[in-house]
Amino acid sequence: MDLVGGCRAFVSVSETGSFTAGAALARIPQPVASRRIAALERHVGERLFDRTTRRARLTPFGRDVLPSARRLVQLADAMEHDARRARLRPVRVAVPATCGVRDLAALAASARERSVRLEFRAAEPAERASLVRTGEVRAALTAVPSEEGVWSVPLGVAGTELGRVVYLETLRPGRSATPRRRVWIQPEDDVPHVRDRVLRVRDAVGLSPAQVAVAESLTSAVAEVLAGDLLLCSLAQAEELGLPWRPIGELQVARGYGVSAPLPEDADRLCSAWGEAVGRCLGVER
């Protein structure tokens, strides 16, 4: 039975001395109040009201259990109040700095339709994991190998002058119109499962160590790209930067993302309820 609903009707009728007035106080129809009180009486095994008079008079048993019923109703009201406050409290999520503002805004708007306020904190991979551990965010989109992730984002290179496919071996000095062009790895991709694979190809095709390097920031990397270098990035990121994008001939590499959260329900919600919207933020190809 609905114990809280029965107690609410019981308390309201006891305070007004009338089933009709008590139902109005509880904001329910009078027949509903009567049924709930009858169900509560069956549940506790005793009558709560003496129905031999026109007024709803408490029985001795009813007077004895009324204080407990009142406390239960008060606790239920307090819980509902706390739940409303909790729904208004923002859910902070650490996200890659590569996420587009518009896509994040669309994700936040989708969450608000479910009465959830999402707030985002852009951070690099290592910092995102740390923010979850310290409790500064409730969840983080963490960098993982693409085969282990919920989302996978293929990477290629962006630049001002590109062929249909970019082969890194063509960047060797003497085999390119622009000698010693470099490929910049941005901080988001400075993780072993991306960086190390690119560096192995660099060494295999005979590029110098300086021709594939990790940039201090995305801004500094893009500045070098505008001067003729290449940027390791996703197609979505290249489009946002207004740069042509091509796959790498010798290598298939992708960013992988999972969710780290102390509460499983927070991780499940990001993966299931908003999985497609999160993917758009990360640059998953449409």
UniProtKB/TrEMBL annotation:
Domain of life where this protein originates: Bacteria
Q: Which UniProt keywords apply?
A: DNA-binding, Transcription, Transcription regulation
* Domain HTH lysR-type residues, every copy: 1-59
Query: Does Manganese appear among the keywords?
Result: no
Does the entry feature the keyword Nucleotide-binding, yes or no? Answer: no
State one molecular function term (GO).
transcription cis-regulatory region binding
Pfam families listed in its UniProt record: HTH_1
Family, per the entry?
Answer: Belongs to the LysR transcriptional regulatory family.
**Could you tell me what this protein is called?**
DNA-binding transcriptional regulator, LysR family
